[in-house]
Amino acid sequence: MNNNNNHSSFAEEDQVTDFGFRKVNQTEKSSMVREVFDSVASKYDVMNDLMSLGIHRVWKKIFIQELAPRPNLTLLDLAGGTGDITFGWLKNGGGPAYLTDVNYSMLSVGQSRAFDKGYVKNINLFCVDGEKICLPDRSVDRVTISFGLRNCTNKDNVLAEARRVLKPGGRFLCLEFSKLIIPMLRPLYDAWSFQALPRIGQIIAKDGDSYQYLAESIRMFPDQETLKGMMENAGLERVTYQNLSGGIAAIHSGWRI
């Protein structure tokens, strides 16, 4: 009976998506991802430091430099979570920002941090699904998503929505874990991802399973060239990317011309 039920729920290939290394129904993924981030929200920043050995802070500085913040530009930060990119944008002279996330728990941490940093007047906080952005066409100058795109159910829809809300001349930037381009480092990287991270997650966040998922989701994410093609298919132009730390992460950039 169970085999029949599983078969019927995945009967249509386009209804299936990845959740780490598992295949799940598309309608189930968003709630499963939400449970992961509900679980890890309070320890998310600490775990980011541990997961990347602090290197994520360097990556984000490079990312914000690429954004080239200016007071007359408006930022939409998708999957903005605890606010690192939004705060970096404002700290470096950027204009008004929308800090958004589909997860209330993550957004509440971002809101608390915004109060602590005195940024509340310059930030609008919204619970937003990146596949259905509640902003008008051509309304913002920059759209960012940092370590969030791999958790989205339909990445093509997110990219299309990002382009839709960009003004002509606006720019989309994605910072995400990518494909390591240094073969000799792969065994060490795999050991860190699949052995160390879940154990650290269990100790720090009392949730090893969520960090197992996060490690798996990185491996399932499109490689650099594939994501570049997806952005071009969404209508973004002059798409480029730069590898960080040998491809452990990458910054992809595209423009609405």
From TrEMBL:
Coiled-coil features, chain-numbered ranges: none
A GO biological process held by the record: methylation
Stored Gene3D superfamilies: Vaccinia Virus protein VP39
EC class: transferase
Keyword terms: Menaquinone biosynthesis, Methyltransferase, S-adenosyl-L-methionine, Transferase, Ubiquinone, Ubiquinone biosynthesis
CDD domains per record: AdoMet_MTases
Example of a GO MF term: demethylmenaquinone methyltransferase activity
InterPro entries: SAM-dependent_MTases_sf (IPR029063), UbiE/COQ5_MeTrFase (IPR004033), UbiE/COQ5_MeTrFase_CS (IPR023576)
Keyword flag Thylakoid: no
Role: Methyltransferase required for the conversion of demethylmenaquinol (DMKH2) to menaquinol (MKH2) and the conversion of 2-polyprenyl-6-methoxy-1,4-benzoquinol (DDMQH2) to 2-polyprenyl-3-methyl-6-methoxy-1,4-benzoquinol (DMQH2).
Protein family per UniProt: Belongs to the class I-like SAM-binding methyltransferase superfamily. MenG/UbiE family.
Protein name: Ubiquinone/menaquinone biosynthesis C-methyltransferase UbiE
Organism: Commensalibacter papalotli (ex Servin-Garciduenas et al. 2014)
